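User: Show me a protein chain along with its predicted structure.
Assistant: Here is one chain, sequence first, then structure tokens.
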Amino acid sequence: MKRIIAMLLVLALCCGVLAGCGKGGSKKVWKDVVTRGEFAVGVDISKRPFSFYDETGAIVGFDVDLAEAIANQVGLPLNLIALNEEDELKQLEEKNVDFLMHGIIKSSDTEAKLQLSKAYINNKVAVFGKGAAELKSADAIKGLKLGSVKNSAALEALKKSGATAQEFGSYRELINEVAAGKQDAAVLELADGEYYNSVLAERLEVAPFSLGDRYCVIVCRKGESALSDKINEALDALVKSGKAEEISKKWFGKNIFISK
């Protein structure tokens, strides 16, 4: 995500991106997508559980299923393109993909430089643990034996709050440690935590407060409002039909989908 933000200024300065900012240009972009006959979406395949390679080499994940559902909703086949953080904005700028989605977090930088969909998940910094639902505020975790994952947004938020935690190398390892009673609680991003929480024999509870909201959005080139409007309409339809909830339960064992 840091690389994404660093590259946003370059993206904003490119004439090809800015040329489509008018309403006419935006509508033409959507017309071009329909004429081409496919929805080309770029995903970073290192973003489990949003998009990653499974053991067979197929690209899978929550965002992959959601992208397919969006494409079906607008009546176009999906062209899924594996990218990485180093070149994904360049691929977007050069119109090799129509939009990017892999748990991208809304920020002032992304909002200023890119066209954003409405948020579909709040991948907030959450507290997982046995009995965590009884914790009423962030003050309640003081004195607990906490764990978090190295280099994660959750660990960064925890450090900013002044709390300390044992650092783990993986989400799975930490979730299992809490389930075994070796840690009081895990401080994790909600989607990442729920992905591993969903396979436990007895799910950990999630505290009813957030240590930091992190809204996931789909990003298009700046000014392409006609495309983002179509995506938003599809997201609303998927919520209404229950498809969004179905996809969420498949990957997280519960519905964490939002639409705002």
